Amino acid sequence: MTRRLALIALVLPALAARRAQVGGQAVIEGVMMRGVDWWSLAVRRPDETIGLHHWPLVSWMKRYPILKLPILRGVVALVESLAIGVRALTISANESLGEEEQELGKKEIGVTLVIAFAFAVGLFFIAPLFLTGLMERWLGEGFLFWMVEGFVRVGIFLAYLAIVTQIKDLRRVFEYHGAEHMSIHALEHGEELTVANVEKYKTLHLRCGTSFLLIVLVVSIFVFAAVGRPVWYLLILSRVILIPLIAGISYEIIRFAGRHENNRVIRVVMAPGLALQWMTTKHPDSAQVEVAIAALEKIIELEPQDRPPVKGVEVMA
Hints:
- This protein is of the alpha+beta class.
- The protein is 62% helix and 8% strand.
- The protein has helices at residues 2-11, 60-63, 72-96, 106-133, 136-139, 143-164, 168-188, 195-198, 209-227, 232-241, 243-259, 264-269, 271-280, 286-302, and strands at 23-27, 30-34, 38-44, 50-56.
- It has a four-stranded antiparallel β-sheet with strand order 1-2-3-4.
- A hairpin with a 2-residue loop joins β1 and β2 (30-34).
């Protein structure tokens, strides 16, 4: 179990695709799909059958309307997405190996999220600050310092993606990521969910989590520049306590882009995020597409797509 939790913590920063009312995430030998009130999980078992499961969910934003406020809703949606994602990854790991399903308790979810958060903060926020600090004598303390720190952060992120996408065990996860994107493309275009129809579409999607992560890196440049250069311990602390604000702002940007994805300016601005998806999505085979379709069809069954959109509830999966 410890090895699987470590794998989950490693892969979380690179996955998670986001949609307005239906979202998805690649897991180990499967796909998780999330709607407004339900989430489903389809996993390819060792005997080649597909294990299909579903669970109800109630977003915190439904329970507490104040959480629907801009910026705040992005933080809530991200936390909910990570919690469901960790559970889905763990269940899929067990089922794909033919083991009985083991329910992941709140303690295990909490520990794994802490590990993933600490890993991401250390690698993408503290390390760039340290490395840029080594060049401070040439950069000074102005905006140039923050720009270089931002480029270092993006460079570390790209190196991270380049490494994890070469790990054999993770490559299939990225193939399922592609299958998840393709199946939702087919749904959004009103296609019947068949393997042939789904395979017509690309693995890239404007509202993918990879685009969200890139936006986080860019937004952080401007937020950290506004902080300036306080004493060293406050400077390091700022890299942690400002992450929710950065994530909330980034979520509003990706949400706006998703609702105006046909706008040429938006597509140009979001092009770098789409380009990164060549690293985080791989072309799936037909068997993987079948798994993605199974998960998506379960959500459609539970939440018919001809019903009016549920207002005030954002789906991040």
